[in-house]
Design brief:
single chain, 425 residues, alpha+beta, BirA Bifunctional Protein, domain 2, Rossmann fold, 3 domains, 8-stranded mixed sheet, 15 helices, 37% helix, binds zinc ion
């Protein structure tokens, strides 16, 4: 039997991991400069954490979650998104009272059993943030500004941030639900089977449907923006004004952008990129002012977003980026005989301490010098240090330059200086 990775789940292989490290490094450095602190929640949660927050009638909860019973018959779910677990943790640990509770970020895998396709895997990875405690439109502006700056630091430029407001749960959303239901009356026959059901139980989701027939039907639907109550309209106007004063380009007001999760209220946004097509967002987010309270916590407004790392990498693949990490010096230590092996490990340790930026490889196999040199070449070593019994006796190391193809003996005590010179470090 030949084992294979689970369908829709991918290995990230050593030759491909460089861009992941690069992306994570950039994200961490950017987020931390805004005062965000990382939070790491478990991959598994009680199923109810997601049902309660994302919404019982959403596609994620109905069709896409990996849910199973453990040995004690508890229903557990692999997290399909990051916000609900963080809100659970925020409440459980009273982070509203903690020093670092208000600006959180996460980087990690999520799980949804969607049909696998390009840029869409069943285990996928997200970079996301959550900002708790501010109801002000300036929180929305800062989050969108940070998002824009971080995407720029990833060297992505051609993206658009699509912006909309859903309004509040108290007035705007119920009013719009009514309006949309009336608009769809008599048009049900043209909707897909799922949407026929959605009209009655969660009509906003019809606006999310990716089926052509449904997109046609809702093309002329009323807009959430037309019916906003005064405070919601004022909030959204101030967000737009703030963004335009900061000259944040690539921001587009987009009618009826709703997002596939029930907890959003007010401002919502989505990042699209021409290389991924209109249907596939790089990431999305919005306000969820009621969620913390709905899940049993203090009344706390909040806003956040999540970016799909696979999608960003897909968009980056189409251009050359400075993600190559091969520039650091690689030095290989080839050794012969038992004494050589031990001396080699010792020497490697000395060099690592003196020159931490150098990658030092040692041969732990008892193979010939020729095959060790082949291994050094395959692993990209610029320099090889050869240690046999002769060299040990003379207190020397043979230094071989793999590019110039020459070799010279170097006194053991001068090795670090010699490497510094040759590797310019
Ligand atoms: Zn409202
Ligand atoms: Zn539909």
């Amino acid at each position: 039997m030949k084992y294979k990775a689970v369908r829709g789940m991918q290995d990230i292989l050593p030759q491909d991991v460089g861009i992941w490290h690069w992306l994570e490094r950039k994200a961490r450095s950017d987020l931390e400069s805004y005062g965000f602190k990382e939070i790491r929640t478990p991959l598994l949660e009680d199923t109810s954490v997601f049902v309660r927050s994302i919404g019982e009638t959403t596609d994620i909860v109905k069709k896409e979650m990996y849910t199973f019973k453990d040995k004690k018959e508890r229903s557990l779910t692999l997290r399909p998104e990051g916000t609900a677990p963080i809100v659970r943790s925020y409440i459980e640990h009273s982070l509203d009272k903690a020093q670092y509770g208000s600006k959180l970020y996460y980087i990690g895998p999520m799980f949804r059993s969607e049909r696998p396709q390009k840029g869409r895997t069943r285990q996928f990875h997200q970079i996301g943030i959550e900002v708790f405690g501010s109801k002000s439109p300036y929180a929305d502006v800062e989050v969108i500004m940070q998002l824009r700056n971080m995407l720029n630091s990833f060297e992505l430029e051609d993206f658009t941030i699509n912006l909309n407001s859903l309004g509040c749960n108290e007035v705007c959303k119920p009013k719009f639900t009514d309006k949309l239901q009336k608009y769809l009356e008599g048009k049900e026959s043209r909707l897909c089977e799922d949407c026929k059901r959605r009209v009655k139980i969660n009509v906003l989701r019809v606006l999310d449907c990716k089926k052509d027939s449904c997109i046609q039907v809702v093309r002329n639907a009323p807009s959430t923006l037309d019916g906003l109550c005064d405070p919601c309209k004022d909030h959204f106007d101030r967000v737009k004004e703030g963004l335009s004063k900061l000259k944040l380009i690539n921001i587009k007001e987009t009618k009826n952008l709703v997002r596939g999760l029930d907890y959003y209220t007010g401002t919502v946004f989505e990042v699209t990129h021409p290389d991924l097509g209109a249907q596939d967002a790089i990431g999305a987010g919005g306000r969820y002012d009621n969620l913390v309270k709905d899940m049993g916590g203090p009344d706390t407004p909040a806003i956040g977003y999540a970016l799909g790392m696979e999608r960003i990498i897909l968009a980056l693949r189409n251009k050359t980026t400075s993600t190559d990490t091969k520039s650091e010096g690689v030095v290989y230590i080839a050794t012969l005989g038992d004494m050589g092996k031990i001396e080699g490990l010792k020497l490697a340790d000395e060099i690592r301490k003196a020159l931490p930026s150098v990658v030092l490889l040692t041969s732990t196999m008892e193979s010939s010098l020729k095959s060790q040199l082949r291994a050094a070449d395959r692993q990209g070593a610029k320099l090889v240090l050869i240690l046999g019994e002769d060299e040990i006796e003379k207190g020397e190391v043979l230094l071989k330059d793999m590019i110039k193809k020459d070799q010279v003996p170097v006194k053991r005590k001068d090795i670090v200086e010699e490497l510094k010179k040759r590797l310019k470090c």
